[in-house]
Amino acid sequence: MINTGQSAASQGLQSCHDCHALWRLSDQNTHCRRCGSALHLRKPNAMPLTWALLLTSTFLLIPANMLPIMMITSLGRGEPATILGGVIDLIDLGMYGIAFVVLAASILIPVGKIIGLLIMLVTLQFGLTTNMQQKMMMFRMVHWIGRWSMLDIFVVAVLVALVQMGNLAQISGQLGATAFAGVVIFTMLAANAFDTRLIWDKHPGTDSE
Amino acid sequence: MDKITETEHLIACNECDLLLERPVILDSQKAKCPRCGSTLISARHNSIERTLALSIAGMILIFPANLFPLLTFELMGRAQSQTIFSSAMGFYYDGLWPLAVLVLMFTILVPACKLLLLFWVSFSLQFSIRLPARRFALRSYQHLDEWGMLEVYLVGVLVSIIKLASMATLVPGLGIFCLGALILVTTMSSSMLDTDLFWHKIGEADND
């Protein structure tokens, strides 16, 4: 007898990660007969993988912010530009709105994402199942907003392609940009590796009758 | 359990694993998980037909969006144009080839693949033709979805315009309008895609 209102796992069922079809737990490690993806009750190695990817992106934050993301050469004089420097330049030009968008996309969002994922990992590690609705909302935000951090990379890409005027004016990409792209990609991968169902497994009232 | 029909009246929340009776919803309605608030299913009106139409429109628009220049930069009588591809190549010439590959993937390769895969699956379902690898195509689409970043790129172009406006003349090209239309079409196609319905149809066809 299958009871609803419980976790699927407690009722002997698991859902496919890709097409969400329900199969018996004994189908574990086979392939979903509807979509062909590998069946796992929970994402394999979710915790260590998320930790590893999150730490990688945290370390990459340092070169991403310390190294210049581009070199602006005008009339023969080269000037390196960092992410924060670009925001300050926009503030100096009086464009506060754009400055805020760039600040949000390139500093607030990546740092916020790392903190958000850290909260989820700590929640899971210590089984803190309070305020679950809010935590899920935050995780969904982190997941959705991640790609927008690539904004600064694309800005540099456009500037590099446009401003190629030799000694007159020239912009070239620098290593900081690669590090920053790394931050964005590894936080996105970390959010994908995490499995929120693991936290709900520890939620009281899920498995107890 | 060999057949999926035994559990077809049930649904498990993808984010919290709560087992529920599958809710019956009408066109363009959404069902949310009562425990964690995630979207369980979201029905779309004419989902298959619309994703097919939008994916075709996208496959047409992707050409002008990539071939025509997005912006032209004019400084002291000299002009430099830029396309999506040339902005990726700029990184390559500066020796940052990993970054060039990433920009190429996120702005050209992934959006193009997404449109092709969506076309493949929706075409196959619309006309009930069992095209090869359609299950793989739909799964690939689901995994690629968030890695297509055309709209982020467009905002990047707009920020660049503002940054350069004070030092030179910038002329928007035809490409930027095509890119805008392409983004509209791809965003609509992914919001019109009812994955639950698509998988259900694929499962039904394969069980026959």
From TrEMBL, chain A:
Enumerate the transmembrane spans.
49-71, 83-108, 144-163, 175-194
Q: What is the native source organism of this protein? A: Nitrincola tibetensis
InterPro entries recorded: PqiA-like, PqiA-PqiB_transport
* Protein name per UniProt: Paraquat-inducible membrane protein A
Please give the chief subcellular localization of this protein.
membrane
Task: List keywords of the entry alphabetically.
Answer: Cell inner membrane, Cell membrane, Membrane, Transmembrane, Transmembrane helix
Among PANTHER family, the record links this protein to: INTERMEMBRANE TRANSPORT PROTEIN PQIB-RELATED, INTERMEMBRANE TRANSPORT PROTEIN YEBS
Q: Which GO terms describe its cellular component?
A: plasma membrane
User: Which segment of the chain is annotated as a signal peptide?
Assistant: none
Q: What Pfam families is this protein classified in?
A: PqiA
This protein's record includes keyword Transport: no
Where does the protein end up?
Answer: Cell inner membrane
Please verify whether the record's keywords include Kinase.
no
Q: Which domain of life is it from?
A: Bacteria
TrEMBL record, chain B:
Instruction: Recite the UniProt keywords alphabetically.
Output: Membrane, Transmembrane, Transmembrane helix
Membrane spanning segments where? Answer: 52-76, 96-129, 174-193
Matches recorded under InterPro entries: PqiA-like
- Pfam families, per the entry: PqiA
Keyword Transmembrane on entry? yes
Q: What is this protein called?
A: Paraquat-inducible membrane protein A
Q: Which organism is it from?
A: Nitrincola tibetensis
